[in-house]
Structure prediction request, 688 residues.
Amino acid sequence: MSFLGDVGREQQFDPFLVFREGFAFVPNLVQAQSALPRAMTAHAKLEEAVAFRDGAISRIHKERILLSIAAHRRDKYCVALDSGVLSSIGVPRVQIDDLLNDYRQAGLSAPDQALLEFCLRLSRNASSVRFEDIEALRTVGFGDQAIVEAVVVTALALYRGTLSVALGPEPDFKPLELPVANLRAGHEVTHAVGATGGRPKTERRGPYVPAPFLSRSTFPPFAIVEKSHGFIPNFFRAQTLRPDLLEAELDAVSLILLSEDSLTRAQKESILLAVSAANLNSYCVAVHCNLLRGLGLSAEQADQIAVDHHLSNLSKADIALLDFAVKLGTRFSEFSREDTAKLQTLGFKQEQILESIVVTALNNFSNTLQMGLGIEPDFEPPSVFEKNKVNLSGAQPTLMPREGVVHLVDTTQDADSEVVAQAQGGNLQAFEELVRRHTQLIYRALIAILGDTADAQDAMQDTLLSAFKHIGGFQGRSKFSTWLVSIARNAALQRLRGRRNTESLDQDDSQDDRDFRPRQIAAWQENPEQNHSKSEIRQLVERGLLQLPAKYRIIVMLRDVEQLSTDDVARQLGLTVPAVKTRLLRGRLMLREWLAPHLTTSARGAAQ
Amino acid sequence: MITCDEFFAEFADYLENQVSPEVRQELELHLSQCRACYVLYDSSRKTIKIVSESNSFELPQKVFDPIIDRVMSKLRTERS
Prediction:
């Protein structure tokens, strides 16, 4: 497990020892994961950091939260476990019964009751949590460290709960009768209702708690996640107030998601994407769409899984795997052993089924944390997902698969769609009209790859002929202009391959000098544009762009000249956002080096 | 204060205005005290502005007319 970076420590880490210290025994819930030892290790890491210690809130606080959530979920296994633990750390039986019956009658202090209420609501309806809820906890005396810890404990309750539903272990303690009162509507946590509507625009956005700056050098786990994910997601950055909890999470994530010995990484990311989409969690959808792109799926394939995985081009088995995970993750009360049996008949091995369960548990853990701390997305979620999300919150919340091809782009928003239909019908005039609308775009796409103006004009002809030949196959899965640019890109690449000594566009960034550092350090003029004519500047920039290596030129052209968003650039090129960001910075810095001799303060005299 | 390496690691996101308030504070503290990083930041910001406003590779439509005419007449000939 080299990705953990600290093999020595890993070899000494014994999950059973951790559970024996925390619970005085190894719970059946853990033993049920023995087909996948690294899942037990991940679980132990989380429990050790989150549940077994007194932190900013005491262990009794934590166990009360865990028990109450288990009772709300009517999870007999976890209720028995948590009651046993509370007993063993000295909480009287009668108080445990009170907690199970009605926590408001359990003699808790007002702040403790407020904390428990918050955690219960977070566990049941995470998307209803707002900044004001965090403020309310601060008002009754909880510090940010305690709030983060309570959110993570709630997340752990859902991690355990998801495993318990799917694995159905025998209780470790004599099971307690769950009081009927828990089913009463009056016991439901009420203020969640009504808060689920659209958020007002002025609302305080996340993250709700401060996150001190931790760098890769002061917090080495960040360097590890950057290597594995290609970036440090906000999800982790937002939790730096508690590096102890964060490190355990990063360990668990690495153990569960980064290996390929059971399910593939793409299968696991697909599970995370499908369950996040069913949870309507835009943050997680955006992250997992990007990670899937990094694992080789096209933007359209990932979008399709987010919108409706039944219509994706995944195998029948993989679609069943996602059905399984979505049911477990979002409709756990419907889950049964038959769901597991179905996966077995489709050929999934025991450890693969177990892994999909653990991944789903991890998803519910992350979902809770993201919503509880108001963590802001790293990327834009696919617009088609957001659109669908709005539809779902309407009067008829159906998730029924639609027939035929789902248009991943709103055709009513593509100004070209009418003329495209005519051109597809063979109307040459309509085709000419389309081409004229987009020549500038095509030309820039060509020059971005070819780096030569004459070549780009030649390639224009190839592009137009190819577009006409293939327009019948355009299905509206992207905007027409995007499709046209992809045709142009193919034409340019074909021409590029014909050249000798071509540079690769897909070359791995990590093979480049990772410490690409600037050399020109002289200060620039205050307003360089004022010291040069517009045409002078333009010539300078064009020459600078043409001398860039193609893989950087394409990105700088799309982002800074065409002014597409980073996310759109990534989608157009089928790259991940982090990969685009890396190349964009390098391209910009190379251009900076190119421009510097002309624009520094000492160059002023020469320019005028 | 953070080091220049730590500053550089966050630099891409800072240029895109995509860092959290806490990170921004650290970076700006560094910028106020490190001349080399300040020059890097200032010149990179200006580079982006200049490139964005340069209208690079924007050609008058008439440059493309002969190409489009050639393609269209080829398509019409094939049709007939």
